[in-house]
């Protein structure tokens, strides 16, 4: 699962969430290089003719477009969230590459997770309520991961402080 609970001290827990990345950067380079090599195969038939210079720019633009799309995807997926639960506080920090960090703090006693099965931007949308605000958490997770996250958040927020 793309999230992990850490016990930072006897009375503090930290939940780190990040989006799943199915294509590591090393494999992204291999994919782009493979597309380039397979793009050269049809150009072999027109090697030595003027037609090569007409087709080559389109192949290069395709490879460049693929590379830029993968890089844009990596930048968009560099978002992550950190929820810190102490004895009295729940503190959520969402790090987004374009908006910067956004913070939410609430008394742990009043913080409660909610699951919106329908009507949210994604199915089984999970939010945290408290402190007069409602904030999303883990919107980039898959549906099954959001369901598991909701169950874990419900248990962790109900635990007495002594069990932390």
Please provide a written account of the structure.
The mean pLDDT is 89. A hairpin with a 3-residue loop joins strand 3 (80-85) and strand 4 (89-96). The strands form two sheets. The chain has a five-stranded antiparallel beta sheet, with no helix packed on it. Strands 6-7-8 form a three-stranded antiparallel beta sheet. The protein has helices at residues 25-44, 51-76, 143-158; strands at residues 3-9, 12-17, 80-85, 89-96, 100-107, 112-116, 125-130, 133-136. The chain has two domains: 3-21 and 79-163, PH-domain like, CATH 2.30.29; 25-76. The longest helix is centred in the middle third of the chain and has 26 residues, at 51-76. The protein is elongated, with a radius of gyration of 23 Å. The protein contains three helices and eight strands, in the order ββααββββββα. It is α+β, with helices and mostly antiparallel strands and 164 residues long.
Q: Which fold does the CATH topology of the largest domain refer to?
A: PH-domain like
Task: Indicate the percent of residues in helices.
Answer: 25-40%
Please report the number of helical segments: 3
Shape: elongated
Query: Alpha-carbon distance between the termini?
Result: 22 Å
Counted up, domains total 2
Structure at a glance:
By secondary structure, the protein is of the alpha+beta class. It has three helices and eight strands, in the order E-E-H-H-E-E-E-E-E-E-H.
Record keyword descriptors for this entry.
single chain; about 160 residues; alpha+beta; PH-domain like; 2 domains; five-stranded antiparallel sheet; three-stranded antiparallel sheet; 3 helices; 8 strands
């Amino acid at each position: 699962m793309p999230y992990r609970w850490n016990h930072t001290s006897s009375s503090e827990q930290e939940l780190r969430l990040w989006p799943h990345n199915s294509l590591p950067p090393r494999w992204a380079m291999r994919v782009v290089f493979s597309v380039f090599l397979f793009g050269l195969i049809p150009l072999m038939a027109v090697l030595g003719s003027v037609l090569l210079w007409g087709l080559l720019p389109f192949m290069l633009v395709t490879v460049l477009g693929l590379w830029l799309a993968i890089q844009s995807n990596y930048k968009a997926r560099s978002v992550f969230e950190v929820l810190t639960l102490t004895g009295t506080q729940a503190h959520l920090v969402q790090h987004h590459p374009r908006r910067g960090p956004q913070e939410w703090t609430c008394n742990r006693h009043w913080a409660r997770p909610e699951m919106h099965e329908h009507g949210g931007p994604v199915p089984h949308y999970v939010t945290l309520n408290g402190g007069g605000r409602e904030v999303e958490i883990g919107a980039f997770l898959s549906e099954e991961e959001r369901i598991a996250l909701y169950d874990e958040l419900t248990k962790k927020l109900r635990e007495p402080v002594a069990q932390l």
